[in-house]
Amino acid sequence: MSHNIAPDQNDTNIDIGRFIHETSYKRNKKEIIFGNVKFDVLLKEKNKILIGETKKTSRFETASKYQMLYYLKILEEAGIEAKGVLLYPEEKKRTEVILDEKSKDELNEIIEQIKQIIKLDTPPKPDSKKYCKTCGYREFCYA
Ligand code: SF4
Questions:
Q1: Host domain of residue 74
Q2: In this structure, what is the dihedral angle of CA atoms 82, 50, 106, 137, given to the nearest 10 degrees?
Q3: Of the candidates 101, 112, 64, which has an alpha carbon nearest to the alpha carbon of residue 84?
Q4: What tens digit of pLDDT does each residue of 21-31 get?
């Protein structure tokens, strides 16, 4: 993504994800583009806004949590207090995500690791993981 390589837009999983995103929680969500990220604002609670991210499955919840933490960090750096919620409409489940000191440290460590990977001249060799099966980039990794 950092090299502007987009995932396969015809990938079925991306289509399903897009469909769930467009058709779920339609009543009270508003899509916001903030810098280079895009997310849904679900509602405002007193001084805090609530950011929602709709997911097809909770199987990859750790990755989804860090994605949400990244959004919250970007908002915090802009002086906006927010909290996050991961929404799994097919499972009728929601998980709250809070940016606290511990999660900020973890996130910063991950960001540093990602920066090191981005700096490499060639990508690391694919290391088959459970994510690969449904990943929109798999054509690039396993072509
Ligand atoms: S290694 Fe697997 S999860 Fe990572 S980009 Fe390639 S296919 Fe996707």
A1: 12-114
A2: -130
A3: 64
A4: 666 656 666 77
